[in-house]
Amino acid sequence: MNILSDICKVCPNQYKLVPPRILGVIKKSDYLIIGESPKDEDLALKQLFTGKVGNLLFKDLEQIGLERRQFAIINAILCPFKNPTKHTSQIKKVMAACRPAIETLIKNICPKYIFCFGNIAASQVLNKWVTMKSVRGVAQYVPEFDATAFFFWHPAIY
User: Fold this and answer.
1) Looking at the DSSP assignment, which residues form a beta bridge with residue 86?
2) Structural domain boundaries of the chain?
3) Which residues of the chain have pLDDT under 70?
4) At the N or C end, where does the chain have fewer CB atoms within 10 A?
């Protein structure tokens, strides 16, 4: 079973899977950034965290001595998720469909630190639905990935 091509068969999102090249170079990295889902800018540029959100994020990271190339970057939902009503039940179904692929990607990257942006990313890493209010500002060790996770509001809210 090719997990990255088979997940859409069970996904209620009805969008095509983002090709793995859009996930960036999947490599071993001490640092992993997990966003929510690819946006139109990401698809056009074939790179995650582009546009205003990515520029803001990586500008801040550069101020503390980190560069984009040091991070593996994936999303908690692998395809563009367009859900204007933001129904939690629909988001959870899409997350569940992506979960096996996300687990595989994280385990292949072997990060020491996972930076989750938004509650969808946080929920996917913790494998349970959480709110940002409940996890933001608290580092949590995630035994499943042998990594420490940090949780942040998604930069798009700023």
Assistant:
1) none
2) 3-157
3) 1-26, 82-86, 156, 158
4) N
Instruction: Give the pair of three-digit tokens for residue 24.
Output: 């960036």
Instruction: Mention every residue, 6+ apart, whose C-beta is less than 8 A from residue 65.
Output: none
CA distance 145 to 66: 22
Asked whether the beta carbons of 58 and 49 are under 8 A apart, the reply is yes
- Interatomic CA distance for residues 153 and 137, integer angstroms: 10
Q: 43-74: buried (b, 16+ CB within 10 Å) or exposed (e) per residue?
A: beeebbbbeebbeebbeebeeeeeeeeebbbb
Superfamily of segment(s) 3-157: Uracil-DNA glycosylase-like domain (3.40.470.10)
Question: At 97, is the secondary structure helix, strand, or coil?
Answer: helix
Instruction: State the CB neighbour count (10 A cutoff) for residue 110.
Output: 15
